[in-house]
Predict the structure.
Amino acid sequence: MIFDIKLEPYEVQMAYDVAGRRFIENQKMGRSFGHGYQGTIEKTLALGVSGACCEVAYAKWKNVFWNGSYSDTYNTYNKPDIGKDIEIRSQFKKPNNFLIIRPSDKKCKFVLVIDENPNFKIMGWYPNFTKPEDKYLTNFGISSRPYCFAIPIKDLYDAADL
């Protein structure tokens, strides 16, 4: 089951503020997006805002606290996005969305949220407590990007079960 969430302007603003802090703190640490990402600053900022908005949308849907996590101590923030075991993966809507899980990712539940701001769709989730099946392993034909597990929406667990 797919769940639709609409964010209010003040909720988008809250996510935007957190995304800006995350971007600046990463700059201070000399970091950007990893895994061979080669996007512009504008695209990096847009993806950061999208990610934070998707986190807010999930928290709103589940009626749980969102701490807007980031590190201002020049350390990597290693805790899940929400609660004890929820990691949000955001994507803009495209013809073929996948939930991306990297081999080095946290051991938790990964949730795919599609951004059609101000509307968001909770698509489903996948447990990353053991390695996903090799049939999902791909680099999408981009030799500069490392392999990841791309779980198709049809193979995700029902979001209602979270």
